[in-house]
Amino acid sequence: MSENFGNDIITITDEDGVEYVLEVLAVLELDGTDYYALVPAQPDDDEDLEVSILKAVEEDGEEILCAIEDEEELERVYDIMMEELYREDEEETEE
After folding, report:
1. b (16+ CB within 10 A) / e for 50-73
2. Which residue of 6, 26, 45, 55 is most buried, as measured by CB atoms within 10 A?
3. DSSP assignment, residue 42?
4. What is the reported pTM?
5. Looking at the DSSP assignment, which residues form a beta bridge with residue 36?
6. Cα dihedral 28→34→40→46 (10° resolution)
């Protein structure tokens, strides 16, 4: 991760040097690995909001976020992450 602006907004830079400002929806720790659910911090009004899930890995002593290559791992993490997010939304609406 490049920079933290607050608890919910981060900037990441891809391998081509393109920076993305993203909002962190949730962080899930699963089997000793952190997974981040992210959306664009300032989405285009024309586009549907797309959630990206990235995996935190350590590279050269620094934590970086990378795509999940294994389809089964991605599906498992996505299902758990969405279940947690929807559960939080339901709990908030019940209050």
Report:
1. eeebbbeeeeeeeeebeebeeeeb
2. 55
3. S
4. 0.78
5. 27, 54
6. -50
Which pair of tokens denotes residue 32? 């000793």
> Can you tell me the distance from the alpha carbon of 2 to that of 34, in angstroms, rounded to the nearest whole number?
16
What is the C-alpha separation between 49 and 91, in angstroms, rounded? Answer: 22
pLDDT in tens, the chain (95 residues): 444 444 689 999 888 999 989 999 889 999 999 999 998 887 666 667 788 999 999 999 998 999 999 999 999 999 998 888 778 777 777 76
Q: How far apart are CA 54 and CA 94, in angstroms?
A: 30
**Residue 29: both structure tokens together:** 């720790």
